[in-house]
Amino acid sequence: MQGFDVRANDVHELPALLAFIDFGYARRYNGFRPEPIGDVAAFISERSDGMCAKRWLLREAFLDSDDYRCVADVLRRSETYGMVSFLLCHDGKLGAVVPKYGLSAAHFRRVFRSALGMPPKTALKAWRLARAVLAIIERRGAITEVAMDLGYASPSHLSSDFRAAMGLSLTRLLDLSDRQQGRSSEAKGNIHSVLPGDDDESAGVGVAERGG
């Protein structure tokens, strides 16, 4: 199959994705020395098998292939990768943690917005919500525990942020996830008791459907 024509804009999005991959999984080197890459877009195009750049990177990261390591070695040198990795590893107020990066808070915000197209505060809020939802869906912790660990004032605060971002309640999402994966309803009962006010009409529909 002819390689997908990967453009510079596609590659521009990869450092942030790689930062999340590295944050979730320990880097694996094992003495591997990546070959130099002059043009990342061309390198991926020749090997993408018709995939877009982000999907290719995810596939190769899962395989921990030599091609992935070569591309990752280049992406880790970018400013975007450095900034995203820094924020993922340092919780707290931007004004307090950014000086550790070596820039003023104002300059950090300008460079970050230029690189990722959004202010750091907006990105951090979205990333925190994504981490919370994934942790809850994967059952790594109770909602209260996840909310507290990630700095939410309460489980209801987490639920409100999710509803504002996604347009549905967190319990509705979990109802759908449980039905898709065939999980029991025991956990959902605990979820509804922890999130008062979140069992809205959409969640009620899920209960009615199961009852019918």
UniProtKB/TrEMBL annotation:
Keywords: DNA-binding, Transcription, Transcription regulation. The keyword Signal does not apply. InterPro entries: AraC_XylS_family_regulators (IPR050204), Homeodomain-like_sf (IPR009057), HTH_AraC (IPR018060), HTH_AraC-typ_CS (IPR018062). It holds the Pfam family HTH_18. Residues 181-212 are annotated as: Disordered. PROSITE patterns: HTH_ARAC_FAMILY_1, HTH_ARAC_FAMILY_2. Coiled coil: none annotated. Residues 78-176 form the HTH araC/xylS-type domain. One of its GO terms (molecular function) is DNA-binding transcription factor activity. Gene3D superfamilies: Homeodomain-like. This is Helix-turn-helix domain-containing protein. It comes from Burkholderia dolosa.
